[in-house]
Amino acid sequence: MKNFFFVMILSAAVLSGCASQPPGVIGGGTSLVQCGDVASRGHLNVLSINLLFSETKTRDQRLDAIAEFAKTRSVDVILMQEVAGGVLVETANSALNLQGKLRDQGGEYDLHTAFEVGLPGLLTLANATLSRCEIDFKMVKKLPKTSELEFEGHEIKIPRNVMMTRLNIPDFGNLNVYNTHLCAKCSADEMNAQLDVLLAFVNDAEDFFPQDNPVILGGDFNIDRLRTEPFAEKPFYDKIIAADFTDAYAENRILDNLCSDTQAADTHCTVGVSNLDIGDSARRVDYIFVNNVDNVRESRVVFNTLIDPSQPTASDHAGVFISIDLP
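The structure assignment produced for this chain is given below.
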């Protein structure tokens, strides 16, 4: 416990210095970030979306689409992966860009960014969480590096992370949200190592903050439980479920029927359903897992343009939206 406490304090100090942004405040020091309506309405709305760092020409329009969705659907928490910054992507932080667009629409969101890979100043990638509820604590855990890229015969190890954001919901209490992006094109052993560290981090953090409130774990897991090549990915999905999490989107649906055909994408798939990844195999790799949640009010895959042409394109991934009841 002492070691974990030290890591927690150190992580918070590092993040507050270089990887996160404080909430907006007015003259008297009162936060502009307010979500007093959440407790009164009795539910929390969450969106997870991989932003696709490499597509810069359409980024502004894609962020507009996300901001419009957040306003229309009263999204309280946005979990983002592939947040980008640097000269090569023409922005300091694409999560800050989205925060500004949300503000322009009258929505104030607190922001926690956790950079994980890249060349500072040129190209950096991050996970980030935007919240209408004030963030009163945050920390990050680095995951084991994996060999996902090869350059001139050399394997390049890529670091990834899982970030914890503790929300303060007025008249309700605190709620912990975790956001991650697990390795792609890695081995089964590497995926297993990352998942072990992630779940241990969540377990330690929840032990340190004992409570009965909901816990949210979302992001791009790069795990499709039906995929068998180059290795079976179902054991990794099952490991998350065995850690007392529930796949929120799968609630009240037949699990084996969700994105079951890699050659024929359906409304449940999150990859192979965007006009930015036409031709890719259909997969369901983006999830929002929950714990201590009695009822999932609503769950949808959004921004899946090839399946639902009325949906705008936000990324090469579709997003996952859920609404959960608060106890």
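Interim note for the steering committee: Residues 41 and 326 are 9 Å apart (CA to CA). Confidence is low (pLDDT under 50) at residues 1-30.
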